[in-house]
Amino acid sequence: MKQLALSTFVLFCLLPPRAAEACMGCVNGVTEVQLPFLNDLLLLFAGWLVLTLIFSRPLTRGTRRFFYFGIPFFILGVLMIVPLALGLPILLCWFVYVLFQILQFFSTRQERILKNLLPLGINVIAILLAVTLIFVNSVRASSTPGIIKTLGGISPFYPQVVHRQMERLIERGPDVVPPLATALVQGLDRDYISSFRIAQIAYCLSQIDDPQAEATLQDIIEYRMTFQDNSHAKWEAAVCCLYAECAGKRAVPVLRGLLVQGEASQNRYQKFIALIALARTGDPHAVSTVLDHIDFLQEGLNQNYETWDNKMTHVTLQALAEGQHPADLIASPVYDSLRLGLQPDSTNQSGIEWNEYWNQKIDPTTLKQHWATLLKEKS
User: Fold this and answer.
1) Is the peptide bond before 58 cis (omega within 30 degrees of 0)?
2) What's the confidence (pLDDT) of residue 155?
């Protein structure tokens, strides 16, 4: 036990100073996506340690090393101090060790007695289970339900990983629309709605050229959004913008309906979201409507602090003021401030350097003529 306690203490001291403060859950969530079999292999390794402890007395020299390092790893891992990825080198060493023990048994003339056969049996079963777990978990994680399950579970601080998962679904085309639509509805039926999951599923649907995908987003906007709960405002804003981008001019009647309802009920968030989304439809009349409400959009921009909706307004107004191409309206990075894991390509053909604090004077009349000309040429 002295060696065990010493190993635990040494491992704890070797960890980064802020490891305990870091969000290990976020880091481990990414690791689970990239290595879906790692959790099961760690449990298998723990079981192997226990069985080896029971049937190997005294412990062999090699097994003792794994025991004195493996147990501290699990103790600190349960305390969320050790990143899950640190288990990978341990597992690799263990895998090589077990294979070596099996080969050594057959390459040397050891007596075929129970004392020698038990460790051999444990090692063989461990190897077979490890290979099976790697194969089964990898196949399951690569399936459409497996990828959909990961949406919303990855920290938005890792947008590259989030987009890699979403792109895997988007590449599969219309075939994934029904399960995505089902997952979206199920996510909205829960007592707690995950903004991350809803926004990421909606993004996948918006990038698939399929009428059912567009209809699903429209149904969510018309029948599922209330604009009454601030905790839902971010995913509602994301879904409306994504719908505007994928439906284009077809989204204008729906979004104008939201605008009218927001003005009638004096719902600031509903009115704001409708205007931001209308600007992304690429429709000249929709853009003209947004410019008619410039005063409303600029009302809250001179505050001492910046909120996510203010930042969305800044980049939208910047796109309207500096954009020289219809695609610039969609390129404005409105999703960055939402922090929902969405980070589409915000490059533009006009060389605009996006600024979340952009706040300059706008001439609505001039911009109406400017965008009417640009969008007319596009159509």
Assistant:
1) yes
2) 79
Task: Pull the structure tokens for residue 326.
Answer: 């219809």
| Rounded Cα distance, 27 and 194, in Å | 19
Supply φ then ψ for residue 191, to 5 degrees.
Answer: -65, -40
- How far is the first Cα of the chain from the last one, in angstroms, to the nearest whole number? 77
Is the separation of the CB atoms in 355 and 318 below 8 Å?
Answer: yes
Tokens of 227: 């604009």
What is the spatial distance between Cα 123 and Cα 129, in angstroms, rounded to a whole number?
10
69 alpha carbon, distance to own chain's centre: 33
Give the DSSP per-residue string, 353-377: ---TT------HHHHHHHHHHHHHH
Hey, how many other C-beta atoms are within 10 angstroms of the C-beta on 32? 19
Q: What is the 3-state secondary structure (H, E, C) of 248-278?
A: HHHHHHHHHHHHHHHHHHCCHHHHHHHHHHH
Across the chain, which has 379 residues, the per-10-residue mean pLDDT values are: 45 47 63 84 82 63 59 57 69 84 76 67 89 94 94 84 92 95 94 92 94 95 88 91 94 95 91 95 93 87 76 92 89 89 72 85 89 77
Task: Look up tokens 């065990």; give the residue.
Answer: 4
At residue 218, what are phi and psi to the nearest 5 degrees?
-65, -40
List the domain boundaries for the chain: 2-142, 145-378
Q: CA angle, corner 149, sides to 147 and 150, nearest 5?
A: 70
Q: Which helix (H) or strand (E) holds 320?
A: helix 308-322
User: Who contacts 200 (Cβ-Cβ below 8 Å, separation ≥6)?
Assistant: 151, 152, 162, 166, 340, 341, 342
Q: What values do phi and psi take at 178, rounded to 5? A: -60, -50
Q: Under the phi-then-psi rule, with left for phi > 0, alpha for psi from -120 to 50, and beta for the rest, what region is 72?
A: alpha
